[in-house]
From TrEMBL:
<dbReference type="InterPro" id="IPR004033">
    <property type="entry name" value="UbiE/COQ5_MeTrFase"/>
</dbReference>
<keyword id="KW-0949">S-adenosyl-L-methionine</keyword>
<comment type="similarity">
    <text>Belongs to the class I-like SAM-binding methyltransferase superfamily. MenG/UbiE family.</text>
</comment>
<dbReference type="InterPro" id="IPR032904">
    <property type="entry name" value="MenG"/>
</dbReference>
<keyword id="KW-0808">Transferase</keyword>
<keyword id="KW-0489">Methyltransferase</keyword>
<dbReference type="GO" id="GO:0042372">
    <property type="term" value="P:phylloquinone biosynthetic process"/>
</dbReference>
<dbReference type="Pfam" id="PF01209">
    <property type="entry name" value="Ubie_methyltran"/>
</dbReference>
<dbReference type="InterPro" id="IPR029063">
    <property type="entry name" value="SAM-dependent_MTases_sf"/>
</dbReference>
<dbReference type="GO" id="GO:0032259">
    <property type="term" value="P:methylation"/>
</dbReference>
<comment type="function">
    <text>Involved in the biosynthesis of phylloquinone (vitamin K1). Methyltransferase required for the conversion of 2-phytyl-1,4-beta-naphthoquinol to phylloquinol.</text>
</comment>
<dbReference type="GO" id="GO:0052624">
    <property type="term" value="F:2-phytyl-1,4-naphthoquinone methyltransferase activity"/>
</dbReference>
<dbReference type="GO" id="GO:0009507">
    <property type="term" value="C:chloroplast"/>
</dbReference>
<protein>
    <recommendedName>
        <fullName>2-phytyl-1,4-beta-naphthoquinone methyltransferase, chloroplastic</fullName>
        <ecNumber>2.1.1.329</ecNumber>
    </recommendedName>
</protein>
<keyword id="KW-0150">Chloroplast</keyword>
<keyword id="KW-0934">Plastid</keyword>
Length: 237
């Protein structure tokens, strides 16, 4: 299984470049999971399990996790597919050294819009909270389509850009009055302030479905979860 971390100016999102993204993640990483548990009451773990389930990953599959962050999806996928690969040092998670099933993970760092893999390599691909921060999202989807085998699935978890004014208003309020203030306790105000704008600059579910089809996928369906605050795109080659 390949777990692929983002590294490129093409993935700069509302920040200016790869160095800024890496610096931002490095600052957040020590408490990233703790913050997610607080903000979502632990539900992010359920949503990630749904993402893996929607991907259709099964024993023996070769899977790709793009923009793997702290590795939540990678670790879930490694348990799903069994021992098929290698693991390299991943400093954000000490547990990766102690659980035997994580030895099937090989960690990479590179560009999500220029994946260094041959065509039709993977049975499954996932990306969690990463596509929103890629500037050329169509190219990233085209790359994931290219490296997936015919009939394979891509599962994309991220914040949902809702078409409901009520949902968007509540989402904005939660970021301004819950997420950012809590982040400020840890000195991470600026690290989380970008979040609201990044969601506004993202795509709606219908727009994601359309973009996936334009990128070459034969089917695409976007599911709203968590009352419409999160969404999961499932696309099939």
């Amino acid at each position: 299984m390949a777990a692929f971390q983002r590294r490129s100016e093409s993935e700069a999102g509302t920040l200016e470049g790869a160095a800024e993204w890496q610096e931002l993640f490095n600052r957040i990483a020590p408490i990233y999971d703790k913050m997610n548990d607080v903000f979502t009451l632990g539900f992010h773990r359920l949503w990630k399990r749904w993402t893996v389930s929607w991907s259709g990953a099964k024993e023996g599959d070769k899977v790709l996790d793009v923009c793997c962050g702290s590795g939540d999806l990678s670790f879930l996928l490694s348990q799903k597919v069994g021992v098929n690969g290698k693991v390299a040092a991943f400093r954000q998670r000490e547990r990766s050294k102690s659980n035997p099933c994580y030895k099937n993970i090989e960690w990479f760092e590179g560009d999500a819009v220029n994946l260094p893999f041959p065509d039709s390599t993977f049975d499954v691909a996932t990306i969690g909270y990463g596509l929103r921060n890629v500037i050329d999202r169509k190219k990233a989807l085209e790359q994931m389509h290219r490296v997936l085998k015919p009939g394979a699935k891509l599962s994309v978890l991220d914040f949902n850009k809702s078409t409901s004014q009520l949902t968007s208003t509540i989402q904005d309020w939660m970021i301004d009055h819950l997420v950012v203030p809590v982040a400020s306790w840890y000195g991470l105000t600026s690290e989380y302030q970008y979040l609201k704008n990044s969601i506004k600059e993202y795509l709606t579910g219908a727009e994601l479905e359309k973009l996936a089809l334009e990128a070459g996928f034969s089917e695409a369906k976007h599911y709203e979860v968590a009352g419409g605050f999160m969404g999961n795109l499932v696309a099939k080659c």
